[in-house]
Amino acid sequence: MKLIVKNMMFALAVVWLSGNAADVQAANKYVTDIVYVPLRAGPGNQYRILHQGLRTGTRMTVLEENAGEGFTKVQMSDGSEGYVRTQYLMDQQPARSRLPKEQEKNQQLTTQLQQLEAQLKQRENELQSVKASLKNTSNMLDEKTTELVSLREATAEPLALDRRNKQLMEENLRYKNRVEVVEAENAQLVRNNSIRWYLYGGGTILMGILLGLFLPMVRLRRKPASDWV
Asked: Mean pLDDT across the chain, nearest whole number?
């Protein structure tokens, strides 16, 4: 009975360890800040060393965690497998390995910050220049407005006189045109009267000529009649 219980417990332990191994199979681990960590052929110090020393920050894939005696089975980037003490592994890259990247990132951020500060200063200078230009323009506008008001006041009367003069000139032109029309009508009447008197005179002359021709003929016709009687 005890043997059966032991076998069942052993089987459960194997199943549990297999489940844990499947859970951590895709996990990545990194060598801690220890300078060199040996990679062994088995989960113990008695196994031969496959790699004399893994440098700090070396990345590896976990195949089986806590495989025995505090070792973890891992796979290297070149595909080789071995065992490393679990205490020398960590979930993130150690600070010593991340430091150069963080320093480079910090330098990039510092450079970007300096560029942004330079751009901001340039924009501030441009804004000050625009404000100064706007102030000068406003002052010039005030001066021109004052000059315009003074000019309007000074030229108000001459402008009124000029408008009145233009009105008088327009009225004079209308009267002149009217006079020309009347003169043209009078000239036409004179021409009509001259033609009428010319016609009257011509008619009178023609009548005199006709009478001068007709009267002698009448006298000649009457004379023989008196001789016959």
From this structure: 77
Nearest partner of 79 among 92, 56, 61, 58, judged by Cα: 61
Q: Which residues are registered as beta bridge partners of 49?
A: 40
Q: E strand or H helix at 199, and its extent? A: helix 95-228
Its pTM stands at 0.33
- The order of strands in the sheet holding 89-90 is 49-55, 36-40, 81-85, 71-75, 59-68, 28-31, 89-90
CA distance 153 to 145: 12
Question: Tell me, what amino acid is at 127?
Answer: L
Of the two residues 164 and 103, the one the predictor is more confident about is: 164
Q: Decide if 94 contacts 109 (C-beta within 8 A).
A: no
Sorted by where each starts, the structural domains of the chain and their CATH numbers stand as: 2-93 (2.30.30.40)
